Amino acid sequence: MTTFDKKLQQCRNDIDDIDQQLVSLLAKRREVTSKVGELKSQVGMPIFAPERENQLLAKLGKQAKAIDLSVPLVEDVFRRIMRDSYSSQDEQGYQCINPNAGRIVVIGGKGQLGQVFVDLFTRTGYQVSIIEKDDWPNTDNILAKAGLVIVAVPINLTEMVISKLSNLSPDCILADITSIKAKPLTAMMAIHKGPVVGLHPMFGPDVTGLIKQTIIVCHGEQSDKYQWLLDQFTVWGALNYVVSAKEHDDAMAMVQVMRHFSTVSYGYHLMQENVELDQLLAMSSPIYRLELAMVGRLFAQDPNLYADIIFSNPENVVMMKRFANRFIELLSSVEQGKKADFIEKFQQVANWFGDDAQNFLLESKSLLEKAREQK
After folding, report:
1. Residues with Cβ < 8 Å from 121, sequence gap 6 or more?
2. For residue 201, what is the enclosing H or E element?
3. pTM over 0.90, yes/no
């Protein structure tokens, strides 16, 4: 073995020793965070504490800078460690905010998103029942004892299911978790004279917990009667964002409808062009690889879900046509060689984004780093 090989092997041995120490320290840290989870669950303290997280990252960043260590590296490592920390706390269970809530009934509780809420309510100690389409003949007794009914069925079935809930107790909370809000909320308030709230979980069915997840809340009637439910979401780690039903539906036309339709269109174009995906990936920049991953992710899921979202409101067609017209407008500039016109429009959009453009540039760097690691 040469002198170089000996020195290299010694360095590798040192690295291996340090790595083993890091793994042991991570295990010890997880033991402590599990204890934190137990304490939080006893008093109903939310698992996610943004102030604590920000303070810790700032402190660690200063420490890294003082010893000439990469601050982004330290932040990246500890964000990943904190995600595991939240997971370890999640495993300790949650405080039940309202033990006297009565039976929690999830209509469509065997569906993908319904299962998420069934699991969370069950793990928190609530009595949970599920109603599926074949159960309706035997649901009177279940619904009579319900303290909360959540409608978790496809969009096209939501109003029909709501119409069957006229005999709920006046004290029962009626909620839905569909991705449109105005029509279901109106339908619920028309059929039920008790507490009503519209909810839209802004996450997919693949989540195992609600830490750092957003739930949009559209108030209906008697909000004081369902405040405990919103508090329970907070204990689970979710962020409640309150808007009107109209504001929600207008925003979703951009956040969901436009994004999903554009993604479906691009995927359809790739298929029609019969591109070689492996070749595209081999020659992709990290940002395109990430974009392609997001396109592929959509096509790995239920097409009915995305069809329901896109077809849910005729006004969505008007929005998509405006998008198509603007696409053609920019394409015309390219087709006619009007480069200056294209640059002018680009600059107009950049000015409209303002400081957010630079913020998004910085924010996307970490995502691109992760995309590069997967290559």
Report:
1. 104, 106, 128
2. strand 196-201
3. no
Ramachandran angles phi, psi of 138, nearest 5°: -120, 30
189 pLDDT exceeds 90? Answer: yes
Give the C-alpha separation, 127 to 109, whole Å. Answer: 13
pLDDT digits (tens, 9 = 90+) for 170-179: 999 999 999 9
From the number of C-beta atoms within 10 Å of its C-beta (0-12, 13-18, 19+), residue 186 rates as middle
Within 8 A by CB and 6+ apart from 6, the residues are: none
Tell me the C-alpha distance between 128 and 281, whole Å: 45
Q: Is the pLDDT of residue 326 over 90?
A: yes
DSSP structure string for 144-169 = HTEEEEEE-S-HHHHHHHHTT-TT--
Nearest C-alpha neighbor of 200 from the set 166, 158, 228, 235:
158
Q: How far apart are alpha carbons 231 and 145 in whole angstroms?
A: 22
- Rounded percentage of the chain residues whose pLDDT exceeds 90: 59
Partners of 105 in the β-ladder: 129, 149
> Using CA atoms, how far apart are residues 253 and 53, in angstroms rounded to an integer?
33
Q: What pLDDT band is residue 375 in, cutting at 50, 70 and 90?
A: low
Helices (H), 172-299: 182-191, 227-235, 245-252, 259-273, 277-282, 286-299
For residue 196, which phi and psi values (nearest 5 degrees)?
-135, 135
